[in-house]
Design a protein that fits this description.
3 helices
């Protein structure tokens, strides 16, 4: 039962990451549609890429935060 729930949670996380990627694509398309300008669109691409990367690498970011917190505590 625990294995089943663990697999379901992992699948749910994958669905959330896919939804974030789709939302980021819609955001970039919306910026292009409204502005038809290169600079805001490039900015939207960079920000969307940062958000998608961050959601895919949460464990890396959490580990780095733990390391930084330990250096400040000691």
């Amino acid at each position: 039962m625990i294995d089943f729930l663990s697999q379901m949670i992992n699948q749910f996380g994958t669905v959330i990451q896919a939804a974030i990627a789709v939302a980021a694509s819609v955001y970039v398309a919306g910026v292009w549609w409204k502005t038809k300008a290169l600079v805001p669109t490039i900015t939207a691409v960079v920000m969307a890429g940062l958000v998608v990367w961050a959601t895919g690498n949460v464990e890396l970011l959490e580990g780095q935060i733990d390391v930084d917190a330990q250096t400040w505590v000691q």
